[in-house]
């Protein structure tokens, strides 16, 4: 019948599990499902990355447009500020001319009090 000294060299490991499937290998159908899932996941990931890049590009373009608008507004404000400063300077000069034109002030020597 069999060897009784514990030598199991003639017994090969059973390649089947108890539920009827292969123990160490998946069936072709299961492998195909895994490959198909992986491919679908890769495709979804690429699509998601493409959408993300598109959102980023749109956001960047929006920021660049805002920067251009703010630069233009800044230039207009600086020009307006320069005009206001020039107007104020001219008004001050006119006021000084009017004050000087009305009466001439001369510096006179006076005696100081006794020390």
TrEMBL record:
Record key words, sorted: Abscisic acid signaling pathway, DNA-binding, Nucleus, Transcription, Transcription regulation
Predominant location category: nucleus
Signal peptide: none
Localization per record: Nucleus
SMART domains assigned to the protein according to its UniProt record, in alphabetical order: BRLZ
Pfam families on file: bZIP_1
Domain BZIP residues, every copy: 35-84
Region called Disordered, residue ranges: 1-57
GO biological process: abscisic acid-activated signaling pathway; positive regulation of DNA-templated transcription
GO molecular function: DNA binding; DNA-binding transcription factor activity
InterPro entries according to UniProt: bZIP, BZIP46-like, bZIP_sf
Compositional bias per record (Polar residues), positions renumbered to this chain: 1-12
GO CC annotations on file: nucleus
Similarity section: Belongs to the bZIP family. ABI5 subfamily.
Protein's name in the database: Putative basic leucine-zipper transcription factor
Organism of origin: Diospyros kaki (Kaki persimmon)
């Amino acid at each position: 019948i069999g060897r009784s000294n514990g030598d199991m060299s003639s017994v090969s490991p059973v390649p089947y599990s108890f539920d009827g499937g292969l123990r160490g290998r998946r069936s072709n159908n299961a492998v195909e499902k895994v490959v198909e899932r992986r491919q679908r996941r890769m495709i979804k990931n690429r699509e998601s990355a493409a959408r993300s890049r598109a959102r980023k590009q749109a956001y960047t373009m929006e920021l660049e447009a805002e920067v251009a608008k703010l630069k233009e507004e800044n230039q207009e404000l600086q020009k307006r500020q320069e005009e206001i400063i020039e107007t104020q300077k001219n008004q001050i000069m006119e006021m000084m001319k009017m004050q000087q034109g009305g009466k001439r002030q001369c510096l006179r020597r006076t005696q100081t009090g006794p020390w």
